[in-house]
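Ticket #4471: structure output looks truncated?

Reporter: J.K.
Steps to reproduce: submitted the chain below (107 residues) through the standard prediction queue, then opened the result file.
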Amino acid sequence: MKKLVLMPGLLLCSFLLHAQKNYAVKISDAKTGDGIINAAVKIKSTNKTIITNASGTVVIFGLETDVLQISSHGYIRREIALAGQSIAIDVIMEPLVIKKKLLRKHN
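Returned output as attached by the reporter:
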């Protein structure tokens, strides 16, 4: 009886493991093309976060249904769906432009 209960569970676990892949994600600056160091790559559904290395890359283990949230100081945040992506993903980050308001002195 115990074997009948364990077997479906083991089959389900093996199915889930096959659905997960290692994705190599490269985060680059839009202007220079250089890799962005210390960018945060977070799997939205699990809140698991990994930081990019010195070349701006990270390897993340995820499902094809996952969405990556990518952020770095001074850049606009991005969300990338893993659905339809190859195992090598290039993400271009645009710099965040902050417009300063001119302060006028009132006399």
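Triage note (M.O.): checked the attachment and the full token line is present. The longest strand covers residues 20-29.
Status: closed, working as intended.
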